[in-house]
Amino acid sequence: MAQAQLPTYDIVIFGASGFTGKYVVREALKFLDSPNSPLKTLALAGRNSSKLSEALKWASKSHPAVPFLIADTSDPLSLRRMASQTRLVLNCVGPFRLYGNPVVSACVDAGCDYLDICGEPEFMERMEAFYDMKAVEKGSLVISACGFDSVPAELGLMFNSRQWVSPAVPNRVEAYLSLESDKRIVGNFGTFESAVLGVANANKLAELRMSRPKRTRPPIPGPPPPKGSTIEHQKKIGLWAVKLPSADAIVVRRTLSILTNNPSGLEGVFEDPKQAEKRAAFWSTIKPAHFGVKIATKNLLGILGFIPIGLSIGLLGLFSFGRWLLLTFPSFFTLGGFRKTGPTEEQVASASFKMWFVGHGFSDSKLASDGNAKPDTEIITRITGPEIGYLTTPIILVQCALILLKQRGDLPKGGVFPPGIIFGPTDLQDRLQENGISFDLISKSDIST
Ligand SMILES: NC(=O)c1ccc[n+]([C@@H]2O[C@H](COP(=O)([O-])OP(=O)(O)OC[C@H]3O[C@@H](n4cnc5c(N)ncnc54)[C@H](OP(=O)(O)O)[C@@H]3O)[C@@H](O)[C@H]2O)c1
């Protein structure tokens, strides 16, 4: 009988010549063939070999022998060739709503695994609707949002949740994201374009959800969270904040919904009983809570600066001339926050983030059953790390990839999932800590008086 051919590469980085892609290449090369690393073979994929060569030169001065694969999202055969040669594709080609679908399709057909750095809820939910069943059948794990969107939110909520030791329970956790830098904080055009197209197509996401079965909501002890004011002053952590319309809360809700249907998490394809016990023990410590994310700054003026940016994207993004204006003059409409050329290496190196998770809940779950119950306990945790888009995102993506290579048997056979439900019970948090992203317990307080 003919033996099935093994894939040539452990990982292919698709979109390696992109702004984020080249930082992902730099991060992945740190682990290529190093002792104890499961990453032994790597290839870079994109539309243009000279751009791939430039990206590789930029990412490593030592000129490693990394092969190039030519693939274009408008050429399904090239995607099929790429997917059939690898165990795992790391997709950095965005906006995902424009380019992602054929890549996921090729990976699922080939039965290889797929991770991306998408922050676009509609794309993620559409991929789940289109490919989940086939991905299970083919043994292909498809996991979006394996970057700053939305792993810190997913693991951060779990970390906060684990500080609520029974009989204590959380009711709501609000995350406050504070971006810091000695220099100007700038994002690349790719992320801006993805956000603008997300606003333009908000109605399509609503339509998609209407056409799908309702997700199971987790039971959360206590009342629903209060509405609160548009601008909040969070005195405890000294920050002013407004709601951030990112993918994070949506992704977290997907994970909590899957967990509600599978209270011990998802069974690994070749998991042994000890591992199954470990997985169930992990999930037994996670208590669902209402979750939201806000962008925060130390002074009120800083937060007021976000409002016109949000309004111009929200309003101009709704019609085509407005979108043309936004995408032609990104720097003008974001007050310098996004640039077609992206940030300099110096700007990236000088930036960092703090994400505070302020949890409110009950010292005893019995207190929550009273309809007028007010939380009596506050637990604050925090994640800190380097610049979000081009340092933290590659670190997260590469660590998720290494887990997939090393611990594949402990993960589900296949399917389309958010990152939290897959990586929650793995050693991802420890790996992130080893790579400069810290998780800390800040305080536990009685707020009953
Ligand atoms: N999760 C997060 O926190 C996070 C962080 C950073 C970025 N992102 C997302 O990552 C995506 C990329 O952002 P970016 O700033 O890196 O954008 P970018 O610099 O424009 O890079 C886009 C990449 O896609 C490739 N590409 C475009 N069209 C293609 C096609 N038809 N076939 C094959 N490749 C194609 C480009 O190839 P060429 O080089 O040949 O043009 C380039 O390599 C965006 O969706 C962004 O939102 C997410």
From TrEMBL:
The chain crosses the membrane at residues 300-326. This is Saccharopine dehydrogenase NADP binding domain-containing protein. GO terms for cellular component: lipid droplet; mitochondrion; plasma membrane. It comes from the Eukaryota. Belongs to the saccharopine dehydrogenase family. Residues 11-138 form the Saccharopine dehydrogenase NADP binding domain. One of its GO terms (biological process) is glycolipid biosynthetic process. SUPFAM superfamilies: NAD(P)-binding Rossmann-fold domains (SSF51735). Pfam families: Sacchrp_dh_NADP (PF03435). InterPro entries: NAD(P)-bd_dom_sf, Saccharopine_DH-like_oxidrdct, Sacchrp_dh_NADP-bd. Keywords: Membrane, Transmembrane, Transmembrane helix.
